[in-house]
Amino acid sequence: MVFAIVASLVWFELPVAALTTSVGPTDRPAATSGLSWLSVRDRRIVDESGRTVLLRGFNTSTLLEPTVPHLPLDETDATMMESDGFDVVRLAVSWGRLEPQRGVWDAGYLQSIAATVDLLNRHHIYVVIDMHFLDWSSAFSGSGAPAWASLPLAPDLHMQALGDWQRHLSPAVNGANTYFWVSPDWQADYMQAWQRIAQRFRGDSGVAGYDLYNEPHAIPLPPIRFEKSFMWPLYARTIDAIGSVDPNHMFIVEGELLADYGTTIVPLQAPNLVYSPHEYTGSLVPPMFDGNARPIDDHVQQVADEASRVPAALWVGEWGMSATQAKATTWIDDTVDAFDIAGAGWAWWQWREDSPWGIRDSAGHTDTAVLRHLARPYLAAAPTGVHSQGADGIAGILTVVVDPGFQGGAIDVAWPLLTTAAPQVGGTCGGVPRWDPVRARLSIVIDGPAPCSMHITASS
Fold first, then answer.
1. Which of 75, 223, 238, 389, by CA, is between 20 and 30 Å from 201?
2. What is the overall mean pLDDT for the chain?
3. Worst-scoring range by mean pLDDT, 13-27, 92-106, 294-308, 309-323?
């Protein structure tokens, strides 16, 4: 008995070697839609000029299965996001819709992804394509895998008293999920699905990157060992599969679903790598937020440390809270503060939904009270030696500081024009600001000495 316990502990803690990928050099055509190609350099997302880019925006589930409540994304949505300074949408897509029958690919669905990308790119919004999974597949009232990817002898659980937990705990859901992680055959189809998407978008700079797998989880596989033996190795193989047809985009990997309790990191050497945990501390993950920002700050610091050990840039692919939850806007302010300290961009869950989590509902009503807290000004693209402080979307304030030794380059400030007035600039930096009200961008080329600072406020 003692031997078995010791052997089990050793198995859990047994180290694994760092992983490497074999993605070749990029082969990028000229940028499209006025959106620069993005890369990762020194754990920062950068544009073709080497400026640090901060991606802030929203999720949308508009292309998922009918089993997942979702609303269409239209021109008005894209216009609103653009005019409030946001620059990214994480677009959830479905492997099941792309490969509804094994080996049969739905070209129409791929075209619908392309049409949504085009809509957003026309409004200068990048797209992160997210291979989304929720309770494995639509066969179990979830989303993600095709209906054919199921185990025929595993019973599905139907106990209405359990609510959503009837899906989370279903033997059919967890059996299929486990089979995927331990067996290469379904993984091969999943990677082929990614290759279909990557082949379509390999020349599109308006696609920021590929989020490989939404919220991977161990259940019922043991945590720690799951990450070491299954999750990270799959990431490496998937990056190689995508990279064989498209080496041009960022590869986005997530932490384990229960990331508040930590994700075991296996170092992964891959180009243009982004680590994308989800942040629901105090929102979905107890204890519920009571006004104390310490748990949020601690968790964001934890995931920033995980990103450094990958090593990868940090970008938070999901975060959110019901607007009906106590102190919701305070939680938003505190969480964005923590992201700012970590230098992390993010995507709120989500833009359009008929629930207190959505910003815009099916009737077109917009929750401006929440939106004003999300839409604070920020440095959308900044050369080395430039940083910001004092961002406030409610008051419409941002201070931009240019350090000594600044080597030049354009500074782009995203400004929430939808929820504040147009910006006005004061301070000690020389240069004529250029304001683009369509893109909600304030561009400044410094022509005076550094150090200096600019104080940007909403015009009265």
1. 75
2. 93
3. 13-27
Instruction: Please give the torsion angle defined by the CA atoms of residues 347, 349, 350 and 353, in that order, rounded to the nearest 10 degrees.
Output: 180
Exposed/middle/buried for residue 405 (C-beta within 10 Å: 0-12, 13-18, 19+): exposed
Residue 36, classed as helix, strand or coil, is coil
* Confidence class for position 160, pLDDT limits 50, 70, 90: low
Other CB atoms within a 10 A radius of the CB of residue 1 amount to 5
Q: 301 — alpha (psi -120 to 50), left (phi > 0) or beta? A: alpha
Asked if residue 238 lies in contact with residue 194, where contact means CB atoms within 8 angstroms, the answer is: yes
- CA distances (Å), 204 to each of 35, 97, 119, in order? 9, 22, 13
- Cα–Cα distance measured from residue 54 to residue 223, given in angstroms and rounded to the nearest whole number: 32
Q: How far apart are the first and last CA of the chain?
A: 75
219, with CB counted inside 10 A (0-12, 13-18, 19+), is middle
Instruction: Provide the strand spans (E) within 3-64.
Output: 19-20, 39-41, 44-46, 52-53, 56-60
Q: Is-cis flag, bond preceding 449, omega within 30?
A: no
Is there a contact between 450 and 460 (Cβ–Cβ < 8 Å)? no
Tell me the pairing of strands 278-279 and 345-348. Answer: unpaired
Q: Report pLDDT digits (tens) over 343-393.
A: 999 999 999 999 999 999 999 999 999 999 999 999 999 999 999 999 999
**Residue 2 C-alpha from the chain's centroid:** 44
Asked whether the beta carbons of 457 and 424 are under 8 A apart, the reply is yes
| 358-78-239 Cα angle (round to 5) | 85
β 434-436/441-445 pair status? antiparallel
| Interval 124-144 mean pLDDT | 94
Which of helix, strand or coil describes residue 182? helix
pLDDT given for residue 158 in this prediction: 63
Threshold 0.70, pTM exceeds: yes
Give residue-wise pLDDT tens across range 10-39: 445 567 899 999 999 999 999 988 999 999
SS3 assignment, position 242: helix
